Amino acid sequence: xxxxxxxxxxxxxxxxxxxxxxxxxxxxxxxxxxxxxxxxxxxxxxxxxxxxxxxxxxxxxxxxxxxxxxxxxxxxxxxxxxxxxxxxxxxxxxxxxxxxxxxxxxxxxxxxxxxxxxxxxx
Amino acid sequence: xxxxxxxxxxxxxxxxxxxxxxxxxxxxxxxxxxxxxxxxxxxxxxxxxxxxxxxxxxxxxxxxxxxxxxxxxxxxxxxxxxxxxxxxxxxxxxxxxxxxxxxxxxxxxx
Lengths: 122, 110
Prior knowledge:
- The complex is a heterodimer of chains A (122) and B (110).
- Chain A has strands at 3-7, 10-12, 18-25, 32-39, 45-51, 58-60, 68-73, 78-83, 92-101, 116-120.
- With 122 residues, chain A is mostly beta strands.
- In chain A, the strands form two sheets. Chain A has a six-stranded mixed β-sheet, with no helix packed on it. Chain A has a four-stranded antiparallel β-sheet with strand order 1-3-8-7, with no helix packed on it.
- Chain A starts with a strand and ends with a strand.
- Chain B is an all-beta fold.
- In chain B, 0% of the residues lie in helices and 45% in strands.
- Chain B has strands at residues 9-12, 18-23, 34-39, 46-49, 63-68, 71-76, 85-93, 98-101, 105-109.
- Chains A and B meet through strand 5 of A and strand 3, strand 7 and strand 8 of B.
């Protein structure tokens, strides 16, 4: 069974940085594109970043463009998210999610990690 | 503000049927596959439907979905108390170059 486990969340001050990791077990991620999705407290889901299997294609939502960087290390079967210039409205549970094989843009997400909470507050 | 609109809530008695709508535009639902996700409180979303109407392995056929034009619908028949959850639609938006989710719908079993 494929399992995704996020880590790296926590409390950070506005303007600060945080790096999230997503480790996969049960299946190599090489063939799969990956995504980051977040959910602010009491709110809906917000997709905000995608990386293709090779890392050659990356998309960001406008809300994080220029502040967040998605990356992956297929040798380590892991996905990463570097978050800089964090703002109060970045407070959310952050999920990594695997995309369908061979996709060149987000198609559908399965499975999802359990999520990691990022709280931006002074 | 989401570009896909869902009703905030729907409800029905056990055994009955509910239908959840997801309204978009030609740049998203009209020209891309729609997927649906089920989310219980405090847990991660789970894929329910992909490519408009396909169920992943393990999803019961009580869950069905369709797409017509710029709208999509998710139906749940034989409603059970265990179906009480939030349901989200999602699709790629070609104009935004972004994946967009619906506003989410809470299903309540009366």
